[in-house]
Amino acid sequence: MDKNFSEKAYGEMIGKLFVRFPSFQKTGASAYKPGIANMEFFDQLAGHPHRQYRTIHIAGTNGKGSVSNMLASVLAAQGLKVGLYTSPHILDFRERIRVVCKESFNLIPKEDVWSFIHQWQETFDHLDMSFFEITTSMALTWFAQQNVDVVVLETGLGGRLDSTNIVNPILSIITNIGLDHCDMLGETLPEIAFEKAGIIKPKVPVVIGESHPETDGVFERKVLYSNLPEPLFMGSRTAIMSLLTFADKVEPDLWAQYEEILQEMDLQGEYQRKNLRTVLAVLDVLRVKGDFVRDALIHTSTRTGFRGRWEKLYDSPYVICDIGHNEHGLKYNFAHLERMKKDGQCSDLIIVYGSVADKDVDSVIHLMPEDAIYVFTQAQGKRALPAENIRDRYLTFCEENSRSIGRVHCAGTVVEAMNLAYEIAAGIVAADTDARPLIYVGGSTYVVSEAVAIRK
Predict the structure, then answer these.
(1) Coil, helix or strand for 246?
(2) Are 137 and 42 in contact (CB under 8 A)?
(3) What structural domains and CATH numbers belong to the chain?
(4) In sequence order, which residues have a C-beta less than 8 Å from that of residue 155 and are 6 or more positions away?
(5) CA distance 242 to 85
(6) Which of 17, 120, 250, 270 fits as disulfide partner to 336, beta carbons 3.0 to 4.6 Å?
(7) From residue 124, how far is each of 18, 78, 94, 105 by CA, in Å?
(8) Rounded to 10 degrees, what is the CA torsion of 399, 404, 407, 410?
(9) Closest CA to 377 of 268, 454, 270
């Protein structure tokens, strides 16, 4: 390690890393560099570290993080040392790079980040590598140094041209396909599925979390063509297609315990229903069995340190945050909130919502609960969509569709939005001591990140 390491110097280095090599999380499409040429070149310089362990590669529009963490928890409970690479992060970018063991997890140490950046700084400059390329290289290298047994590797964006797609995995997983990042991945579900299917490799089993009439054929053709020298020769089709599993078309071995596990899991949220089924199907393909599986799934968040997915921040007032940010994910969240109110789990819904400018907010607005109190806000950073813009779109939608508007507020910062939400909740309780208002925070990862950092 460089002898000049200090917390201050480390902080300055990370700040420069974000500025010189901006992340997609911070700046959006301008940070996206499709293609793996840089990664292949760097990988050769670094000695192909990912060849020192087995890899499970995961892509998809939503659910990658949950599936990755559930799977890592089970593999660690089995006694393996598991490298876990996910994105985005909530508070510290080192959350992206973790090692999960049977009883604990560890983030990559700051000292190791420091050493890696200093060792390869000139190479990063020469190749003009992106933030994600740098962090992916860092993860693959550090996992080798830690002598992990297996790495659960989540793609950043897409799959075919994603920085992670230099690995030759033992299993590929594609959670689902939704219309997101259309400007970079395609305008239709089949086009996006084609990009995600890029992680499918010859002779490697594939699990698809959610089947869909428009995308199933894309995956079937990719598996077939990846494993046949001559695509028109169909003699081995049956054997080849046995490599492909659609999770929602099979009944996993643990299916009888599915509902019980789902209810007890520390990862909550309606969308976990599909994620859990995907993981159970994956475990069958991997032939992972044992009494430890159930406990590992139930305690995923505790075992891996996973945050920001239907996470309860406080009991009084009841505060939940979730980084679901597109139509595909938010339809489950908003429907879940409505059921909670209908079932009496909360008396009032207070929704703190912010978005980034490159998201299709209009596709989300129609999903928003009609009888909620809204506090529209914006996170820090260039990508944030102004709160007033979201409010105006919401009001226009309500007027055009004859929906009741209720109470709508704007707050210029997440701190102001959270304080206002707490005030509203306190007012509701003051008027009715039996009331239990629920504050939901979401719409973008950045809003959730800033909300989680606030200490009430």
Answers:
(1) strand
(2) yes
(3) 7-304 (3.40.1190.10), 311-453 (3.90.190.20)
(4) 57, 58, 59, 64, 162, 164, 165, 196, 199
(5) 28
(6) 270
(7) 13, 37, 19, 29
(8) -30
(9) 454
